Each structure stands twice: as structure tokens, then as C-alpha cells.
Give the backbone structure.
Amino acid sequence: MTLPRTPSFRLEGRRALVAGASSGIGAAAAVALAEAGADVTLAARNLDRLEDMVAEFHANGWQAQALRLDVADTVTTETAVAANGPFDILVNSAGLARHSPATETTPEDFDAVADLNVKGAYFLTRAVAKGLLAAGLPGSLINISSQMAHVGGLDRAVYCATKHAVEGFSKAMALEFGPAQIRVNTICPTFIRTPLTEPTFGNPERMAWVKERIKLGRVGQVEDIMGAVVFLASDAAGLVTGSALMVDGGWTAE
């Protein structure tokens, strides 16, 4: 009898680009990929922070380099990806939130959030895919979305709109790039303790709303996302594309 073997979760020999890598979920994703053996390019606007992180990665024996990147600047981003790629793996964790009641949304806030969360994410994903297609390589492209891509949220009309859009283009790109063995998926976290979510954690009324809906009874830590990143990046997820991996403590199970 021949028993099956689990496909590898290891990522040696693969190059990964992590956008938004200077803090929070992006930093954790970069660590997770490096621990699994990938050569990781850490990308964000804060180059000094990235270079400090790269030094820490090297101290741990991991492969890493820094790349200054503003995902909202789509032209510069496409140029940088083409010059530094191809990348076998993308994790896009660059994101922005400006929460307010819908009646108080300003056009400036709408444009700022949409430019990064939708337009920037779209063209970054496309840029990495184009590099893989030109090189004839398979790949795994992961957008950090949100549970708010599947539900509504108080004071989050703009944020929800952008994350719903990320789900839409990720599914469409999964269909388009699937024949080339390029997988496109999203990870949808619940509230994770990061600098982006601190305003919510500092609001007792909002925290009561959050804790009521997370069925596991706790908010998330960045470590809760790391395994999901490695899974989707690896051969263990070889038949997973066009999917949204919920890491939401049961929020969307209702």
C-alpha cells in the first residue's frame, strides 16, 4: 500500500514580495515566509524601518532585502516589481482605513482609501502576475483582505467597499491566471491588534461590539495570520485559488 504524503509547506528557492511589510500583519507575513525558507523582499514606504527589519532577518539566518514602495503610486510600483522580480509569492498587506459614518465621508477620504486598498492592490497584483507570466512560472498571490469584505461594519462603509472590491478582482484574476498555474487568494482577518486597529481597541463601545461577534471570545494577534500565509504560499495549497480564507474567530459564521 502506498500512503499519500502531505505536500510541502516549505518555501526554499522561492522569492516573495511582501507589501506593507514595515509593521503589523505585513511584518508578520514576512517573518512567516522567511521562516519557511523564502527569500523575502520587504516593501513599504518607510525604508529605514525596513532596513532595520532586514538586519534582524539576517541575524536569524533568513534571506531578506528592503524595497521602498508606495503601492498607491501604481506607475512606480509596476516599474519596481518589473525591475526586481519575478516574485513567486506576493503578500499584499498595504492598506488604509479612515472610519466615519457614511454621512460624514469626505471625497478626500474615499479617494485615499480606494487608491491604496483597491487601485494599488489591483495593479500590484497584476504587476507580480505579469512577471510570472513573462517568465513562465507558477505563483501564489495573496491579498490581505478583511472579514469586512463579507459583512458590513459600523462606520466602515468606505473600508467595506474597498475590501469587497479586493475580493472581486482577486476572484477574477484567479480565473484569468489559473491556466498559468498562478493562484490568487485572499486572507480575511477579524480585528487584529496592529497600529491600524488601535483606534477601535481604544473605544469601549466598539470593543463590546467586536467581542460580541467573535465567537472564539478574543481579538486576533498577528501570529494568527502567519500560518495562513505560509499555507496559501506553499504547495500544500496547490489546488486553492479564488478563495477567501477567513481568519475571523467565527465572526462571519452567522
About this structure: The chain has one domain: 15-247. The helical segments are 24-35, 47-59, 74-84, 107-135, 157-177, 198-201, 204-213, 223-233. The radius of gyration is 18 Å. DSSP finds eight helices and seven strands in the chain.
